[in-house]
Task: inverse folding
């Protein structure tokens, strides 16, 4: 297959997966820092950036031993998945044993995963607490998809554009961050996961990220071609 097509397809797919992954994360922002909103107390881009970096580290490690695109991408997904899982777990420990609140959703009265009632555990004037079951599972799925997408872009830059490992990692992270920022603006603050009404905004972000990723893929090919890395 033509290198330009491989590069563009991988970067396009990676960017779309990154956008989808961001919309699945439980992000509480500043309100969550005071235990007055559901999610992890950080911004959307920062949370996904941390997961993406862990995914790229594991993907880069595996890429030194194999050129199998599926194994490299899956390793990135697992690295991101582990980072997000640990982050949400520690956040819940702080909320429960530090702030003394129960992890409950502020968007639904009954957890869609467990069927447990949550309304009676939510503090008045608060938009939920911690990371409830549905948000935790949503975040894990988002981390897997985002990590897979980031590793896919890294692999394309490393193997098809023939970038050096460090340059491939930096470029993949830059494209990932661009897509994460677009998703963050689309969310506009906090989000609990796939059950959040804001998740319905996803199609707009997917379309925008697809366009940005397509242009990024073409730009990568142009840079690689001008540098004599391809052909």
Result:
């Amino acid at each position: 297959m033509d290198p330009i097509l491989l590069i563009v397809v991988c970067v396009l797919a990676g960017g779309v997966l990154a956008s989808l992954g961001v919309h699945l994360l439980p992000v509480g922002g500043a309100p969550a820092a005071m235990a007055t909103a559901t999610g992890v107390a950080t911004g959307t881009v920062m949370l996904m950036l941390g997961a993406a970096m862990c995914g790229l580290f594991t993907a880069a490690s595996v890429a030194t031993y194999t050129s199998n695109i599926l194994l490299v991408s899956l390793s990135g997904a697992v690295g991101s998945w582990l980072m997000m899982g640990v982050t949400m777990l520690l956040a819940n420990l702080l909320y429960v044993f530090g702030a003394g609140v129960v992890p409950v959703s502020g968007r639904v009265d009954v957890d869609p995963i467990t069927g447990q009632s949550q309304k009676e555990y939510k503090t008045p004037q608060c938009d939920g607490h911690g990371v409830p079951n549905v948000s935790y599972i949503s975040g894990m799925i988002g981390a897997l998809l985002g990590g897979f997408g980031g590793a896919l872009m890294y692999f394309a830059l490393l193997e098809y554009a023939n970038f050096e490992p460090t340059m491939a990692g930096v470029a993949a992270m830059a494209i990932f961050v661009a897509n994460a920022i677009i998703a963050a603006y689309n969310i506009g603050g906090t989000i609990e996961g796939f059950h959040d009404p804001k998740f319905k905004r996803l199609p707009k972000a997917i379309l925008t990220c697809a366009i940005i990723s397509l242009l990024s893929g073409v730009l990568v090919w142009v840079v690689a071609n001008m540098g004599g890395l391809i052909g």
In short: Helices lie at 3-23, 29-33, 44-63, 69-99, 133-160, 165-187, 202-226. The chain has one domain: 3-219.
